[in-house]
Amino acid sequence: MNFDQPLQVVDLFAGPGGLGEGFSSLNEGKSFEVLVSAEMDPFARATLRLRAFYRALKKNNPAALDDYYRFCETAGAENPWTSRSFKEWEIADKEARQIKLGSPEGNTELDRILEDRLDTRKPWVLIGGPPCQAYSIVGRARNKGNLEYKAEDDHRHFLYREYLRIIQSKKPAVFVMENVKGILSSKVGGEQIFPQILKDLADPD
Known about the structure:
single chain
């Protein structure tokens, strides 16, 4: 893949960033660039931010990569950045965001970021994974242990609709949603959820 500029990538429900890492590492980062990754878990977001810091250093300030390695190799290190790498840390902080998608506040924050940073005149890619606690085999086993649990009341089954909202309003050239083991057999109200997801994705309007 050869582009004058890397394609913009927006990563929703990013977790610690495995899917985004794959995209951003292709062709040494020359094919895709993660514009924003959204994740509500603070620990996963910390990993996202650290990897974004690494990519920013590698691209803009390779002489300061020692700051990243020092932090990774030093137990109890307080900050990954020093005065020479703080600019790249700020870039990483703007890329990796702690956002609760599906909430009014989280959606408003994401919409503002996309409005400010995403150039929809150029092709871009929307990626992510559905929150897997509701779909995964392990998550469903845990839910069975809760006598009060009802799948139809678990909003996480329907958070994939946050993708539909962005697809509808921002029109990405490509959309990739990570598969979760168990999603094919997951049911809500006695009905399999995966055919409904496919139907909705085929017609986001």
